[in-house]
Structures are given as structure tokens and as C-alpha cells.
Write a sequence for this structure.
């Protein structure tokens, strides 16, 4: 099995200028009862997105036609809370290829990477500038080049480089996942076990 | 330069380190439950592989199970399917499972320690963020996503970059009525829910050393709520004493060997942390949260912060949270009416928590306006509560002891707080809708929950119980 290769994206974006968006908002617990990875995108941000009746809430960004695109731009500390990978499945399932924020919770970040979704950490200033550009023009575009590790606010030309370790970068660019790699280490793992402390 | 406790355990579990990439980390114990494992088993099957070390994996269904009538089949079809899928996967792969009604069933982070599976120096993972609980024994324990559950099942390893290190020292003596839950709520309120992100935290200092294992677990449990990868406390006599004689603890000469090794598990005097924070135990008072993340906490006898004390860039988010809670900035906390009290979860569902709650409410009555759910963290906790007469004590005060499970902590079963209702909860998360759609959660210690339960309001346990 592998993940989808990450190619350079230039896209309009979906803004969510809220801080501390937690995984219970990304995918509420009652949707975690599935035994497959499918269908989570439909329930992404469910309680913010839908009325109790199931009607879309007009004031939520995913229900606003003005905004679209394959990148979610969110306030700082995105993805805090539970380790549920269902949050990453929901984001990927909805069609997002990347999430941009000034700060991510650790587990979410790892889960996103394991599902081919790139978390891009930008400076507070860059993030504020981005929200401003989107405010001025909902069709403002963002470009993310993973190979060069740069993110560009196309409207202003402002750009930043972002960090990602070279191992993960390579995995994303080539669509490889960790499990295949670990399986290839069988002998090294067995050798480790021989010398490990045991009682 | 000396090594930290964390370094010692981590470094001895690295199978391979990848340049500018993660470490391949060997996992000693892997806990699984019904919610985050089915897709991992499916992945293994798809690849044609099998579970590498079934003896090092333990399963217990907990998130979805009902807390009444556990002898009946689970009514909710999807929940039942998840629990049955776990059973099937465990049977197919030779994994021990403590299913519903098994005497060892319970919340995974309560079960591991009480069976002596959790031991110092181990690396432990589970597809659940509160795996950090086990760090109280001086182990490296942290939550993982389902892809990593699959990795750990398939290879007994996962890939992780080594986190930075932080030490939080708390010196001095805790005042009466102040519990370990207040310590951790206080720290999170100080450093916010992102303050520990990127770090693995060692809790140290005289206040920590004086705590029981149960109380230590509460602190490590909620280290994830400050964003940390996990928390840990160096093992000492209290730790050995707790483990000794438990079902899976080392026995006879193995015990001596183990203790000798565990004694080496401490941070060297000259070790340096990436970050170090110091707090005084005497500054800590009973805490409660008023907002929609665990960092929004205050002393129970104080007020919600005023809007001008909030940074400009965060004002919108703060206001959104107040609107959700139905509170106003600057409001006094004490005296606000509450509707539900939940005592339980992997944070405060252990025997000591039930004892504390029961002792506090003894001779008093539950307020009529309050619905209370007292949920033991495991079958063993339930059994002990019965043996100690805690059930009767609770009943005399108008409370009912339910059956074990995660329950209203995340409301995947029927234990949901109704929309708009306020719940003082001993669990760990107060996110919007965490305890059911529209529910409003106030996190607090079992003692503060007891004060709320008998008054029907937010109340200071020191005043209510003359502590
Ligand atoms: S009690 Fe709550 S936090 Fe703990 S494992 Fe269960 S759902 Fe997670």
C-alpha cells in the first residue's frame, strides 16, 4: 500500500481563522465507529458544518461557495486533542492536500503525513497576511512546492520556506509509507530483540 | 554530560536512526482498543502480513461499551460491530483480549497499570492519546495514530522523531483539598494547550514525589492536554510498591533483577533539558475550566478572565468559546448552576478517585438538580469499590455506581450530556461537543466534582467539606 504522491499545488484556499481547532471538532467522536477509512470527509467539521437537522449551516466556511480549493488555512495550534487518525482521514477524504497553520499538535501532524496530507508550518506574520489576502479576495491563491520547501502567497508574492525532515519529504514526494520501510527491517528488529533488557 | 530519564529509555530502544528523519523505535508493550485498531488490522491483512509479536499486545474494548447492563449484547449496532471486530482480530492473531464482562476489562490506561503490565523503562504505545498515563511508572508511553498502530502490530516498531525534553518541577506541599488533578490543570492554564508541543515532559520535585501512583497517573495522563508527546515520572519506592505482586509483575529473582534495573532509571544530576519550568505547590488551589479547551482553567474561587486580558489575536476564539459555554468574560465561577457530574475516565476513574469522592459526599446528599454518573475505570476498580463499601456510601448520598468504561468522557456510548447542559467532569477534555453534541464541560478534580454534586453549583471543595 502506498500514499498518494504529493505534487506542487497552486490553489485557492479554505480559510478557518480559529485557534486551537481540536480533533473533536475535525471529526466528532460519534463518527469514529467505522471499521474502514472511507467516508470521513463527509463528516469533516460536522458540528460546525451542519445543523442538528442535517441542514448545512450557511455561515460555516465549507458551506460558502466563495471559498474552495485543496488547502485548508487554519489558526494556530491546529489538531490538538485526540490521536484519532480519523481526523487526518476526514481532511484527506474531503480533498485537502495540505493544511497551513502557524502551529500544529504533534500527533495530528504525524497522522497527516502518514496519509499524504502535508502540514505546512508558517510564521504568524505569514499566516496573518494570508488571511488578509483571502479576506480581500476569496479567490486568492497559494502555492506549495514541497521539493523546494516553499510556500507562496500568490496575491502578494510573499513567500517562506518551511521545514520537513528529508525522510518524510522523500516519502511524500514518492508516495512511500513507513510500514513498507519497517517491514524491510525485519532482521535488524530481531537483532535488537536479542540484546534488549528483559525480565 | 549526563542523560535524562527520557534519553536513557529512548536511546536504549532505538533500532535504527535515519539521518534527518525519525528513529525506528522498538515498542515493548502495545495496547489496543476497538476504535483505532480495525483499520490497522485491515491494513495488515491487505498486505498479506501478520501480527509480529502478539504476546506484547493486549486488547480491551472500552470506548464504546455501555455502562449499564453489560451482561446484555451492545444495543448500538456500530458499537457492537467495532467490539466484535476487535474480538475477531484478536482471535485471528493470538492477542489476549479482556472483553466485556471479563474481570480485567476496563479503560485501557487503567487496566495496564493495575495488572502490572506497565513497568518502568518500557516503551509503550496505544492508538489513544492518553497513553501518556503509563509514563507515571517511568516508562515512555505515548499515543499514536492508526497507521502507527498498524506499524506496531506488523513490526513491533514505530517511526518517531525524538522529541525535545522538558522538566517541570513542583516543589513543596499541596494544601488540603488540592489534588494532582489541580496540579495538572494549573500547569496547563499557565502554559496553554500548546505549551508542551514538541516536548516529552518529566515531572519532578518534592510535590510529585509525595504523590501516590494513582495521583501520578492523573498528571501524566493530562500531559497530552498541554500538547506534550507524553509525560513521565522517575520510578521510586512508591512505584515498586504499587507494581509488586500484580498479575504480570516480575516475580521472585526476576523481581530483584527488575528493581535493580529500575533504580538506574533517573535523570542524572548534570543532565540538561531543552526547557525547564518551576512551580510552587503552595500556589496551587482547586481548579476548574470555564472554556472549550483544557488551558482555559482558573481557580475555582476566582473569575473568568476579562476580555482585555486576552491577546488581540485570540479575542475572537475566546469569545466563540464563551458563547458556546453560555458564560461572559469576567464572570464569577463559584455559584454558577451545573446539571451533571461525571466521575470517571482514565484521568480520575481509579479507586483512589472513587474513595475521595465517596468520602467527601459521605453524610451529605446529591443536589436534586444534578444527574451524576460515577463510573469506575475498570472491572477491578468496580470490584474493589464494592469490597470497600464505596458503593453503599455513594448510594446513601444519592449516587449510583455504574459499570466500567470510557463513558461520558467522550460519549461514544449512551452516556451523553444533553445539549446546553453543564457537566462538572473529572475527565480530561472540554472541547465543544466532547461529552455529546452541545454539551458544556467543566473539568475538575473528584473533590471539586463532589462539591458541585452536593450543591448543584460550581463550589470550592475546601469550603463545602471544611478541608
Ligand atoms: S477515558 Fe476518555 S480519554 Fe481515557 S481512553 Fe477513554 S475516551 Fe480516551
Amino acid at each position: 500500500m502506498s500514499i498518494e504522491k504529493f505534487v506542487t499545488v497552486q490553489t485557492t484556499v479554505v480559510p478557518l481563522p480559529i485557534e486551537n481547532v481540536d480533533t473533536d471538532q475535525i471529526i466528532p467522536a460519534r463518527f469514529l465507529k467505522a471499521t474502514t477509512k472511507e467516508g470521513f470527509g463527509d463528516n469533516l467539521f460536522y458540528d460546525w458544518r451542519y445543523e442538528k437537522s442535517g441542514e448545512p449551516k450557511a455561515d460555516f466556511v465549507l458551506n460558502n461557495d466563495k471559498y474552495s480549493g485543496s488547502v485548508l488555512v487554519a489558526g494556530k495550534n491546529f489538531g490538538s486533542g485526540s490521536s484519532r487518525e480519523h481526523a487526518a482521514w476526514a481532511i484527506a477524504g474531503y480533498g485537502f492536500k495540505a493544511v497551513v497553520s502557524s502551529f500544529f499538535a504533534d500527533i495530528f501532524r504525524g497522522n497527516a503525513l502518514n496519509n499524504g496530507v502535508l502540514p505546512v508550518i508558517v510564521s504568524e506574520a505569514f499566516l496573518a497576511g494570508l488571511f488578509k489576502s483571502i479576506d480581500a479576495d476569496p479567490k486568492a491563491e497559494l502555492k506549495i512546492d514541497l521539493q523546494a520547501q516553499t510556500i507562496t502567497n500568490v496575491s502578494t508574492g510573499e513567500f517562506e520556506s518551511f521545514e520537513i525532515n528529508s525522510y518524510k519529504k522523500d516519502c511524500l514526494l514518492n508516495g512511500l509509507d513507513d510500514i513498507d520501510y519497517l517491514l524491510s527491517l525485519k532482521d535488524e528488529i530481531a537483532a535488537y530483540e536479542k540484546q534488549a533488557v528483559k525480565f | 554530560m549526563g542523560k535524562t530519564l527520557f534519553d536513557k529509555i529512548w536511546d536504549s530502544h532505538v533500532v535504527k536512526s535515519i539521518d534527518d528523519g525519525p528513529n525506528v523505535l522498538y515498542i515493548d508493550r502495545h495496547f489496543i482498543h476497538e476504535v483505532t485498531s480495525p483499520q490497522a488490522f485491515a491494513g495488515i491483512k491487505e498486505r498479506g502480513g501478520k501480527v509480529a509479536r502478539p504476546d506484547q499486545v493486549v486488547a480491551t474494548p472500552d470506548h464504546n461499551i455501555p455502562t449499564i447492563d453489560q451482561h446484555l449484547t451492545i444495543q448500538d449496532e456500530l458499537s457492537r460491530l467495532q467490539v466484535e471486530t476487535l474480538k475477531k482480530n484478536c482471535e485471528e492473531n493470538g492477542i489476549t483480549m479482556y472483553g466485556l464482562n471479563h474481570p480485567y476489562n476496563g479503560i485501557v490506561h487503567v487496566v495496564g497499570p493495575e495488572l502490572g503490565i506497565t513497568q518502568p523503562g518500557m516503551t509503550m504505545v496505544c492508538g489513544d492519546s492518553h497513553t501518556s498515563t503509563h509514563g507515571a511508572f517511568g516508562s515512555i508511553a505515548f499515543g499514536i495514530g492508526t497507521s502507527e498502530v498498524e506499524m506496531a502490530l506488523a513490526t513491533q516498531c514505530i517511526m518517531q522523531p525524538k522529541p525535545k525534553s522538558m522538566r517541570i518541577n513542583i516543589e513543596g506541599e499541596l494544601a488540603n483539598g488540592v489534588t494532582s488533578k489541580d496540579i495538572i490543570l494549573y500547569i496547563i492554564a499557565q502554559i496553554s494547550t500548546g505549551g508542551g508541543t514538541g516536548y516529552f515532559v518529566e515531572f519532578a520535585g518534592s510535590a510529585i514525589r509525595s504523590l501516590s501512583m494513582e495521583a501520578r497517573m492523573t498528571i501524566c495522563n493530562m500531559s497530552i492536554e498541554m500538547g506534550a508527546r507524553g509525560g513521565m515520572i522517575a520510578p521510586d519506592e512508591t512505584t515498586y510498591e504499587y507494581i509488586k505482586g500484580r498479575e504480570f509483575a516480575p516475580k521472585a529473582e526476576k523481581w530483584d533483577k527488575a528493581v535493580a534495573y529500575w533504580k538506574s532509571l533517573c535523570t542524572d544530576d548534570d543532565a540538561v533539558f531543552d526547557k525547564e519550568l518551576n512551580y510552587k505547590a503552595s500556589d496551587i488551589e482547586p481548579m476548574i475550566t470555564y472554556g472549550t479547551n483544557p488551558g482555559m482553567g482558573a481557580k475555582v474561587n476566582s473569575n473568568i478572565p476579562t476580555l482585555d486580558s486576552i491577546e488581540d489575536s485570540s479575542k475572537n476564539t475566546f469569545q466563540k468559546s464563551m458563547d458556546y459555554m453560555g458564560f461572559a468574560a469576567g464572570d464569577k465561577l463559584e455559584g454558577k448552576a451545573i446539571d451533571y457530574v461525571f466521575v470517571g475516565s482514565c484521568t480520575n476513574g481509579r479507586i483512589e478517585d472513587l474513595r475521595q469522592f465517596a468520602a467527601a459526599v459521605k453524610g451529605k446528599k446529591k443536589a436534586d438538580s444534578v444527574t451524576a454518573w460515577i463510573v469506575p475505570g475498570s472491572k477491578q476498580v468496580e470490584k474493589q469499590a464494592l469490597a470497600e463499601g464505596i458503593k453503599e456510601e455513594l448510594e446513601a448520598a444519592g449516587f449510583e455506581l455504574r459499570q466500567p468504561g470510557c463513558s461520558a468522557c467522550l460519549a461514544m456510548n449512551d452516556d451523553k450530556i444533553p445539549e446546553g447542559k453543564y457537566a462538572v467532569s473529572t475527565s480530561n477534555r472540554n472541547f465543544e461537543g466532547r461529552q455529546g453534541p452541545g454539551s458544556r464541560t467543566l473539568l475538575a478534580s473528584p473533590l471539586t466534582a463532589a462539591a458541585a454534586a452536593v450543591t448543584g453549583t460550581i463550589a470550592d471543595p475546601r469550603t463545602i467539606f471544611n478541608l
User: Anything to note?
Assistant: The mean pLDDT of chain A is 95. Chain A touches chain B through 60 residues (CB under 8 Å). The CA atoms of residues 144 and 151 of chain A lie 5 Å apart. The two ends of chain A are 37 Å apart (CA to CA).
